[in-house]
Amino acid sequence: MHKLNIDTFDLNLLAVFLKLWETRSVTRASDKLALSQPAVSHALRRLRDAVGDELFVSGRDGLVPTARAEQLLTPVRQALSQIGLALQAGETFVPSLAQREFRIAGGDLVEFAIAPQLIETVAQEAPGILIKLVPVPEGESGYESLEAGAVDVVLDGTTVKGSGVRNEVAANIGLTTLIWKRERLTKKRFPLDLYLKRPHIVIRLAERRGSVVDQTLAAQNLKRPIGAVVQHFIAMPAIAARTGYICNLPSGMAPTFADLFGLSMHEPPMDFAPSPLYIAWHKRFEADQALAWLLQKIRQAVATVA
């Protein structure tokens, strides 16, 4: 077994490792680290010698991590995050001076309705902070990502389960029913007979989790026809505008897409319970003033669309 002398190990090599993992390129990693390409290549050779593994091999689309590199990723991220928090513990967070990257996991609602307001605020108050929107991790990987610091915040309709994860209801999201304007509906509430007759466009995620719309209708022994199942919210109004199908959008998104696609907005024909939107983070990072600041900005952005 290869033995590593931790007393003489250069921790800077771990930062190079993470950048190589993220960029899959010596050239791009050198740009991110403000180092020369030979310096990054030399660091990679030293790291290979230290751990006794190639770590990255050349592939068609760039560097490909080995199995050993995959094993190292989470503990390396976690270790560097802990070191960073320890070094920053005595410092006061000043948004206007901060240089930081945050990864926020969220779906369409987050990207279309919440992120624009959030990023606008961050750009004004903390221009050195980069917001990266990433997919919501599935299953236990959500807990693992938060614990390791690979994701800072998860915004989703379900909680992230796991020891140490904080889940907070950020908002309760209602629905608005949309249909093309040529239907000439004048009433604020959508007519139930048309709602049950005209095909609907539904999003795959809601179909898989069980839509509040279908659950409420089923409780009344009613069922709506489904005309299309899509992967993203933005497809729903686009299809509705071409077909006359019905779509139900989160109320915070509805006005933008109604104007964009020429649709009329209405209250649903029945009272559907609002769906919770949760903010999740890990308690390991609660001492991080920058994260506390970000959570507050997220809460404010969510409040504008709830």
Automatic annotation (TrEMBL):
From what organism does this protein derive?
A: Variovorax rhizosphaerae
Show the CDD domains listed in the entry.
PBP2_Nitroaromatics_like
The protein's name in its UniProt record: LysR family transcriptional regulator
Q: Which family does it belong to?
A: Belongs to the LysR transcriptional regulatory family.
Organism classification:
Bacteria, Pseudomonadati, Pseudomonadota, Betaproteobacteria, Burkholderiales
Keywords for this protein: DNA-binding, Transcription, Transcription regulation
This protein's source sits in the domain of life called: Bacteria
Where the record annotates domain HTH lysR-type, the positions are: 9-66
Q: Does the keyword Metal-binding apply?
A: no
